[in-house]
Specification:
The protein is mostly helical and 80 residues long. It has helices at 11-43, 49-58, 65-79. It contains three helices and no strands.
Length: 80
């Protein structure tokens, strides 16, 4: 007498369950990846005050603190 019982699976179950699993996996993966990327962008913004200061210095200008703050505010407004 075999230990493993035979399981009867219909053809529609063989087709539907993997497709359903893929759809649910894509949806869950999308939201998890989105949350991780948002958290990473908050921790490490793509452009910081140091990067703006370096950009001004590479153009041969010594920026004032007001210019750096104005540039940061303009970048934040553009991202919203």
């Amino acid at each position: 007498m075999p230990i493993v019982a035979l399981i009867e699976i219909d053809l529609w179950q063989v087709i539907v369950w993997p497709i359903l699993a893929l759809i649910v996996g894509f949806i869950v993966g999308f939201f998890v990846a989105r949350k991780l990327i948002q958290r990473e962008m908050e921790k490490n913004p793509p452009i910081s005050e140091a990067a703006i200061r370096a950009m001004f210095m590479s153009m041969g200008r010594k920026p004032s603190e007001a210019q750096i703050k104005a540039t940061m505010n303009a970048m934040k407004k553009a991202n919203k």
